[in-house]
Amino acid sequence: MTETAVPPSERTRVRRVAENASYDSATLYAIVDDAYLCHIAFSDDKGSHCIPTACWREGDHLYIHGSNGSRMLKRLTESEVCVTITHLDGLVMARSAFNHSMNYRSAMIYGSFEKVLDEAAKRSTMEAFMEKLAAGRQAQVRPGNDKEYNATTVMRIALAEAACKVRSGPAVDDAEDMDWPVWAGVLPFARARLAPQTDAACSLPAPDYVLGWQDGSGKAA
Ligand SMILES: Cc1cc2nc3c(=O)[nH]c(=O)nc-3n(C[C@H](O)[C@H](O)[C@H](O)COP(=O)(O)OP(=O)(O)OC[C@H]3O[C@@H](n4cnc5c(N)ncnc54)[C@H](O)[C@@H]3O)c2cc1C
Questions:
Q1: With contact defined as beta carbons under 8 Å apart, do 207 and 219 qualify?
Q2: Where are the domains of the chain?
């Protein structure tokens, strides 16, 4: 377990395979920053829901946005939530069937969302979202107008009550299985950046974040 920056709460203290737990903000921020989406679990009078949506981080908050008409965004002001993010890094092939595992980085964040009501803060965090998607693009696009901003709700949740769980490394087999005649190891995953696909109606030169997309130098998260 990494150094504990924030002591876990009763509901964030990992009990199962607790040695893979982490509660420090550096681990949490790295998991959030590597994500384009999160899943938000909440309940209403129709039951429990878990909805995927785009997310980004600014400081010690996770942000989401959507239409004012979104059922989810309306409910989030009334409901306690749990936000999850998971990155799958590999399939762990052990010698015995029941010792197979997965390498991953996951985070669970608990609390309540609040609307970002300050207009300047709302606009600047939407720009931060664009910056995360493609560094430098905000300055090139037609900016959002008042009508678009007025139709959009931006919400944030503090990255305060959270748990991370990270598994990495090889399979862990029992000593008596080590001679079993089967391949063992990790089948790793990585998110692949493919070649950009220029819009058929676009004849403009590609900016840096497009040219650098595939090799990762384009700075997008
Ligand atoms: C890609 C992937 C595949 C998995 N496959 C399996 C599987 O097949 N079977 C299985 O039993 N488990 C699997 N897990 C682990 C699973 O997420 C839980 O950690 C585990 O099931 C224990 O759940 P629990 O409620 O008993 O844990 P507890 O330790 O009792 O949970 C206590 C608290 O710890 C925190 N916590 C628990 N799990 C996580 C997590 N993954 N990330 C961040 N915080 C967490 C939460 O705040 C939770 O309330 C997988 C995880 C990942 C990311």
A1: no
A2: 18-172, 191-221
Would you say 141 and 130 are in contact if contact means Cβ atoms under 8 Å apart?
yes
Please state, in angstroms and rounded to a whole number, the distance separating the CA atoms of residues 83 and 155.
13
155 — phi, psi (to 5°)?
A: -130, 160
pLDDT of residue 168: 98
Q: Which residues contact 70 (CB under 8 A, 6 or more apart)?
A: 153
Q: Measure 81 CA to ligand 1 centroid, in angstroms.
A: 17
CATH superfamily, domain at 18-172 = Electron Transport, Fmn-binding Protein; Chain A (2.30.110.10)
Q: Is 86 in the pocket of ligand 1 (CB under 6 A)?
A: yes
pTM, 2 dp: 0.94
* pLDDT the model gives residue 6: 75
CA of 164 to the centre of ligand 1 (A): 10
pLDDT interval class at 78 (50, 70, 90): confident
Atom of ligand 1 nearest to the CA of 164: 43
